[in-house]
Specification:
mainly alpha; 4% strand; 107 residues; two-stranded antiparallel sheet; membrane; Brnchd-chn_aa_trnsp_AzlD
Length: 107
């Protein structure tokens, strides 16, 4: 059985996650932004995804040059090909997950 403290913890985590991540979208739909600001916002998802991708492709140790993660780079190739042909984010993510799972299973 789940204790009440655990349920309170889960509820607190839900609220803390929901407020900064979901609530702004509810307000942003009702607001009119200037064209330049909307153009800036259009590039944010791609910038964030690129930063996450580069972070996973490189291993950085203090005082050393970054090292490429070969398995992740190999997994990016099929995901990139699927992305070029389909331009569907869900297919890209699923392809990347399956590819890295297969690489890690067989290597």
């Amino acid at each position: 059985m789940i204790s009440t403290e655990y349920l309170y913890l889960m509820l607190g985590c839900f609220i803390v996650t929901w407020i900064p991540r979901i609530l702004p979208f509810a307000f942003a739909k009702r607001m009119q932004f200037p064209e330049k600001f909307r153009l800036f916002l259009d590039y944010l998802p791609m910038c964030i995804l690129t930063a996450l991708l580069v972070q996973n492709l490189l291993s950085v140790s203090a005082g050393k040059a970054p090292v490429l993660n070969i398995q992740e780079i190999i997994a990016c190739v099929p995901a990139l090909i699927v992305g070029i042909y389909t331009k569907d984010l869900m297919k890209i993510v699923v392809t990347g997950i399956i590819t890295i799972a297969l690489i890690r299973f067989f290597v």
